[in-house]
What does this fold into?
Amino acid sequence: MQSGPGVTIDSVMRDSYLVLMPGFLQRPLRYSYYNATIFLIAVNVLVFVVTWLAPRAGVYLALIPAYVVQGGAWWQVVTYMFVHGGFQHIFFNMLALFLFGIQLEQRMGSTEFLLYYFFSGVGAGLATVLVNNATGIGGVPVVGASGAIFGLLLAFASFFPDARIFIFGILPIRAPVAVLLYAGIEIVLQFWNSRSGVAHLTHLAGLAFGYLYLLVRFRINPISVFFRRR
It folds into this structure.
């Protein structure tokens, strides 16, 4: 059906969608603060205790890409973020969640912070399902909040580019430099140390989905922020 010379109903609807959709995605949420970071840490610790007492629960909650696709265990793209492989694993992840999460939650608001956290973590899980199944390692379990944590690190460096992060607790470097350094290390390890048992791809995917969220939702391009002239 034509609505005018060279103009169709479909084209009008498509153009309207392109105009309205960015506004919908960037609609601000009402600011509220309810200690979501502490809640996330508490849930992680609780799941760690449960899986320590009942190891089979860890198998059910961990991300096993082949089982997700073949067995329909799609809950695992969420639950894997709360499962950890040992005390050191959960300790450092929760330390990073506390250090970066508190400040980001105060800056974003708790609801926005949770949306960002789960978007980064679940997105990283979905990417891991896709790639690991395609490369024949779909039966290898993936656990940990690191995908979401890498997303938080990217957001922290984007909102607080002048902040200093102490590497190994002694070497202070600007947050953007830390992000680029960690991303570079993860890329190298993904290709040269893929059998280490560490899900480097999941970490990188967390960065990628965090980048997408910041770009679309906040109109912040982290790369532009990192290399902004002073």
About this structure: The domain at 34-226 is CATH 1.20.1540.10 (Rhomboid-like fold). The first helix runs from residue 9 to 25.
